[in-house]
Amino acid sequence: MHLDDTVCYCFHVTRRKLMNFCRLRRPRVPSLLSECGGAGTGCGWCVPFLKMIFRHWQSGECVPELEEISAQEYARRRSDYIRSGHGKPPPSAKSSAEQKSLDGLSVQRSDDAGAGCGTDADSKGTSSSASGI
Ligand code: FES
């Protein structure tokens, strides 16, 4: 999974955004990653990956599953997860296929250009923690 790949499809949060959040906000526990644009507070699919990102940031240890999964495989697994009824995305969330299509057309947004997401999360008033992280 590359830095610009989406980790949380429900809230369109990339790995880069999460890594910058960790670097700037230094969360004490993985659940605080939910303050990064609401990551993990929708269908719940990305929660294990948020934990991996946290572990990678905190310890610097390599997390093979995180490094080896492709964006396409990640999106496919998330679609399977939703289809099988394990989680329900928020109404505003796009499906993985819709997001993938948009990702192919999109240009780099300024809030996704490595500036971190502390300000972004604050501006949305996101303060809930993801359950189960
Ligand atoms: S993909 Fe992150 S909560 Fe649904």
Please state the CA-atom Rg, rounded to the nearest Å: 14 Å
Number of strands: 2
The low-confidence runs, each spanning 5 or more residues with pLDDT under 50, are: 102-131
Query: How many DSSP H or I helices?
Result: 6
- Which range best describes the helical content: under 10%, 10-25%, 25-40%, 40-55%, 55-70% or over 70%? 40-55%
**Which strand order do you get reading across the main beta sheet?**
1-2
In whole angstroms, the N-to-C terminal distance is 20 Å
Structural class: mainly alpha
How do the SSEs run, as a string of H and E?
A: EEHHHHHH
**Percent of sequence in beta strands:** under 5%
Biggest sheet statistics: 2 strands, antiparallel
Bound molecules: FE2/S2 (inorganic) cluster
Mean pLDDT across all amino acids: 80
| Overall 3D form | globular
Tag the structure with descriptive keywords.
44% helix; two-stranded antiparallel ribbon; 133 residues; 4% strand; disordered C terminus; globular; 2 strands; 6 helices; mainly alpha; binds FE2/S2 (inorganic) cluster
